[in-house]
Amino acid sequence: MAGKKGRSGRKRTPDALLPPDSRQRDRRGGADVRAPDEAIRMPPKMSKQEQAEWRFLIPRLTTMGVIARLDTDVLQRLCWLRARCRNLMAYLERYGDCYPEKDVAGKVKRMVAWPQVAMLNQTMTQLANLEREFGLTPSSRASLKIHAPDQPKGETKAERFNLVG
Question: If you ran DSSP here, which 8-state letter would residue 14 be given?
């Protein structure tokens, strides 16, 4: 039976976030989940690059209203993937996408892709999937039904989303 590859059915939308004064228990029983007003702390033992990605992403995702404290592990993975992607791209920019394979006589037989090319492709696929989950692509952002926080008077949308500066 031939079918669609991947998930079928309607697209999932994020659950409605609770106002800051109300609380909800985690299904696994334990930590409280709060709305994005509560500060999300950076996990320990992140590399300098991952920390830079964290500092870049968290304010934007908080402003969009799509994250909660429960998302810390997923956000850490997102930062790790972004840092890894940058490292792999820097390697390929420096050395190129392929290298010459030589025979015993030293004559170039063919050009072979670096293993980092396959690693980058896999990392980019994983990164794209996580970015879609958080609404970091234009099409996924359009499909999310997010109730953004009220806009303060006198502040434009471009200022709120740091698009002008």
Answer: P
Distance (Å, whole) CA 39 – CA 116: 36
pTM beyond 0.85: no
Q: Is 132 exposed, middle or buried (0-12, 13-18, 19+ CB in 10 A)?
A: middle
The full set of domain ranges for the chain reads 45-143
What's the CA gap between 161 and 158, in Å, rounded?
5
- Could you report the per-residue pLDDT of 47-64, keeping only the tens digit for each? 999 999 999 999 888 888
- Kindly give the residue spans of alpha helices, DSSP state H, lying in the chain: 48-64, 72-95, 115-133, 138-143, 157-160
Token digits of residue 71: 């998302």
